[in-house]
Write a structure and sequence with these properties.
about 400 residues, Bact_solute-bd_prot1, globular, signal, about 35% helix, nine-stranded mixed sheet, ABC transporter substrate-binding protein, alpha/beta, SBP
């Protein structure tokens, strides 16, 4: 098995080898810019291309890289001299990219930075400078197939619902032959998406200062014990190796972000969108975030920064809000969001998006995140079987990742 080269190591190598202009000679003819993104969604790409077509200084192309290998592919491209001019950066990689010096400063080119919500920019700042624009600050919510709940004799959830209520309803649907609750984009691999559940217990993957493992702390043990029981005893979640499509009507609920609402435009079932259920720690929100940065080594870094300023101005941010909740306070209101999200009701936008951003915490992120993710994933594998000893598994996770924390 090939050894994993940490993201921070690749980025440190890049910055040690020199600054901008080292990648390749600038091509002759009309300027072109390349931006790496992880989405291949046709609606997303259509919107990106429509916005980019209004930029007259360069032709912009968008390169989709699969999410499973996105950060590794991007950092390898940068280290190998084949970097894009701009890149979509996931929240987990933010500490590595911002601290390494791999990104160009942006603040002078971003329109009205004073209205950017501080909670949204925190990951992307260093020493008062902004190194990536947080173009998507998207709280997790729960899409609910209300038809399946009613058929299983369950009531439609109301504001203030709890995790116990959610799992009871999901289990009832599963007994009727459909799947209960799906944690979107988890698939027993991307454990960071489980923060959408464990934060309800006040659990954390590691301490706020990033130096102490939190997997074996009481709150996490309680949350993961609840999850394990929900999977293997109550059958409220599909088990390992089972793929279920909520959007085809095959599951009662899915935890995901509003960018997936478009998949329901042709739904043949009634549905609603709810905030995350309350846990023992009370009401909470978890945010997935992505920023767009300019690769400092790009020979066209200045032009790329100018394009990013255009791509994220107020008018274009309002368009992007259809899929990606904006970081601009002037746009974070129901009236603005409703214009670009016609499938969602005003109360859903308020409770999930507006209120969620106001009180939400970002998914786990840390320097050296790529290695941490892979190490923790492997250590969590024994959890996903019926007879697992949850506390023992979580102690094992900490034994594996503690040496990586704070390093």
């Amino acid at each position: 098995m090939r050894a994993l080269i940490p993201t921070v190591a690749l980025l440190t190598l890049v910055t040690a080898c020199g600054g901008g202009g080292q990648q390749a000679a600038q091509p002759s003819g009309p300027a072109t810019l390349r931006m790496s993104i992880w989405t291949a969604n046709e609606d997303h790409l259509k919107l990106f291309n429509e916005i980019a077509s209004g930029y007259t200084k360069a032709k912009v192309t968008f390169e989709s890289i699969p999410i499973e290998s996105y950060t590794t592919t991007l950092t390898t491209q940068i280290a190998g001299g084949k970097a894009p001019d701009l890149a979509w950066i996931l929240e987990g990689s933010a500490p590595d990219f911002v601290s390494s010096g791999a990104l160009a400063p942006l603040k002078s080119k971003i329109e009205n930075t004073g209205e950017l919500v501080p909670a949204a920019t925190r990951l992307w700042e260093k020493d008062g400078e902004l190194y990536a624009y947080p173009f998507s600050t998207s709280p997790f919510g729960v899409f609910v197939n209300t038809d399946l709940l009613r058929e299983a004799g369950q009531k439609v959830p109301e504001k203030g619902w709890t995790w116990q209520e959610a799992m009871t309803a999901a289990s009832a649907v599963a007994k009727k032959g459909k799947a209960g609750l799906v944690v979107g984009d988890w698939d027993y691999k991307n454990w960071t998406n489980l923060a959408s559940l464990w934060n309800g217990w006040g659990a954390k993957a590691w301490s706020d200062d990033g130096v102490t493992c939190g997997f074996n702390q009481p709150a996490m043990v309680e949350a993961m014990t609840f999850l394990h029981k929900s999977i293997f005893t109550d059958k409220a979640l599909p088990g390992p190796g089972t793929t279920v499509d909520f959007y085809a009507g095959d599951a009662a609920m899915v935890i995901t972000q509003i960018s997936r609402a478009g998949l329901l435009k042709d739904a043949t079932f009634d549905w609603t969108l709810m905030p995350l259920p309350n846990g023992p720690a009370g009401e909470y929100s978890v945010i997935g975030q992505a920023g767009i940065g300019v690769v400092k080594k790009s020979p066209q870094a200045d032009l790329a920064t100018d394009f990013l300023g255009y791509f994220t101005n107020s008018a274009n941010s309002a368009k992007l809000a259809q899929f990606f909740p904006p970081a601009r306070s002037s746009l974070l209101n129901v009236d603005t969001l409703a214009k670009s999200n016609p499938l969602l009701k005003p109360d859903q936008l308020q409770s999930v998006v507006v209120d969620g951003i106001a009180k939400g915490v970002v998914k786990p992120n840390h320097k050296g995140q790529e290695e941490l993710i892979q190490t923790a994933r492997a250590a969590l594998d024994p959890m996903w079987q019926p007879g697992a000893d949850v506390k023992t598994v979580l102690d094992g996770v900490c034994a594996k990742i503690q040496p990586l924390l704070g390093s």
